[in-house]
Design a protein that fits this description.
Elements: E1 2-6, E2 9-11, E3 17-24, E4 32-38, E5 44-50, E6 57-59, E7 67-72, E8 77-82, E9 91-99, E10 102-105, E11 109-113
Parallel strand pairs: 2-11
Antiparallel strand pairs: 1-3, 3-8, 4-5, 4-9, 5-6, 7-8, 9-10, 9-11
Length: 115
């Protein structure tokens, strides 16, 4: 099982960035895909989730109307599109595949929002 995030980087406030998470080694379409983040010196914060059949998405209030999660089952990949980025969005972003009782984590990708 492997989850590999990519697409992080440095972006100015108000800018956009898309991070990706490529999955392998499990039945991607059977798992809820989640994004969580960890800001410097803080705990983990759940950000977004997409259902296994991709018909429902859920977002934390802190990113609502700015972040969108989507999947491409043909590529076994989940995306997090981040718009109107703020300095407080600076964090390491992790994707997590969950279906009880299993959960799989990626290694994370750094997103830094700064001028």
């Amino acid at each position: 099982v492997q989850l590999v995030e990519s697409g992080g980087g440095l972006v100015q406030p108000g800018g956009s960035l898309r991070v990706s998470c490529a999955a392998s080694g499990f039945t991607f379409s059977s798992y809820y895909m989640n994004w969580v983040r960890q800001a410097p010196g803080k705990g983990l914060e759940w950000v977004s989730c997409i259902s296994s059949n991709a018909d429902s998405t859920y977002n934390a209030d802190s990113v609502k109307d700015r972040f969108t999660t989507s999947t491409d089952n043909a590529k076994n990949t989940v995306y997090l599109q981040m718009n109107s980025l703020k300095p407080e969005d600076t964090a390491v972003y992790y994707c997590i595949a969950i279906t009880t009782p299993n959960d799989y984590w990626g290694q994370g990708t750094q997103v830094t929002v700064s001028s």
